[in-house]
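_Per-residue structure_
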Amino acid sequence: MKKFLFSAAVVLSLTACLKTKDYPPDERVLVTISFANVNTPDTVKTTDTVVTRLRITAPDQCYRYEGLDTRNSGPNQFDIQAIGSKPNPALPLPTCDPFPYSKDTTFKFRLTTPGKYTLRYYNGTTLMQADTLVMVPN
C-alpha cells in the first residue's frame, strides 16, 4: 500500500508540471518587403567580400527589415527576397505612421569559385532587378 501511495504521489507531482496551455500568438509575422534600389558591383576578386548596397521599403512604419532570403536557383544563379515583419493581424493592431518605411543596408557575402553569377532580386514574386557579377581569380 505504501508503494502504491508513493507511486501515486510521484505521478501526480510529475503531471502537475505538464503544460497544456497553447503558446500565445507571435506579436509579429514575417512577410516579403520590397527593394527600392540595389547596387551590386560588376567584378570582384575571389578573395574579396562582395558588398551590395540595398534600399528596402515597406508600406508603413509598422514594418521592420529582418533580413534576406537567398536561394540557389540554378548554376551560379541566386534569387533574393527582402524579408520584413509586421504586427500580427490576429492581435489588436497598433497605430502606424502612414508614411513608407525605408532602410538602407548592405548584403555581404563571399564566393570562392571564379565565374559569372546572376543575382536576381525579387519584390514578392516579381523580378525587380537581375545583376551579373563576375568573379575573377586573384
The mean pLDDT is 90. Strands lie at 28-39, 43-45, 50-58, 64-74, 77-87, 101-109, 115-123, 126-136.
